[in-house]
UniProtKB/TrEMBL annotation:
Recorded coiled-coil stretches: none
Domain of life of the source: Bacteria
Organism: Pseudolabrys taiwanensis
Extent of the signal sequence: 1-27
Keywords: Signal
Domain Solute-binding protein family 3/N-terminal span(s) in chain numbering: 35-252
Pfam families: SBP_bac_3
Protein name: Solute-binding protein family 3/N-terminal domain-containing protein
Amino acid sequence: MQVKQAIKLLAVALLAALSFTRSPLGAASVAAAETVRVAHDQRFPPFAEVVDGHSAGLAVDVLKAAATQAGLELVLVPVPFVEVQKTLEDGRADAIFPLAINPERVKLFDFSAPLVVTGGALFVRSGAPTPDFAALTGKTVTTPKTGPLAEYIAKRYPDVKLLVTANYDESLNQLVSGQADAAALNFQAGARIARMVVPGKVTEPKTLFWELPLAVAVPKGRRADLVDKLNGGIAAIRADGTWQKINDAYLAQ
């Protein structure tokens, strides 16, 4: 009887242990999500910025949704604009975003499919009509160096007097003070920053003079696997309507 009792107790203990032990087969069948560190400019509204200590913005929301679909664990690394590309060099990030795709950058980076389509637009003082570049011949246009617009304008509109500034705030202040006749800014970012820096003092444009797709960038030839996964995620959120819902929400703000 003692032997039978011991066997019974051992069986009960074994069943209890098994009930609290994770199955090795089950653990192996669940693949851990790949962690990807992506750096962004900490002040590039409405695409990417830091709000209450967390990354936020239109491009951030699109990237998060795409990463979830792609099975990627996303770690966002907000830094000052001048440090964004340095994060790839010093290992703080695997990728950077949201970066405008242009011929010069394609030589240095591999890009994902576009997260957002934006572009350059002309801002003028409140009450003035929005001009085109033909009307700005011989006049002064201000634009920040933080982006591709300065180079684009210099090449295509050499008859415009171009003032290149350190940031959006400086360009907007030059416009409002009369130092410039127009400010060439990113369409969405310019509108958002103008409302904060010079509220009511500029006319927001309705059209773009240059369309720019914004995407995730990785060093040339180094992370094709990551680009492929992100592209799959982006395609999925476009197909199921998530991408459009995110964009519609920001346009309504």
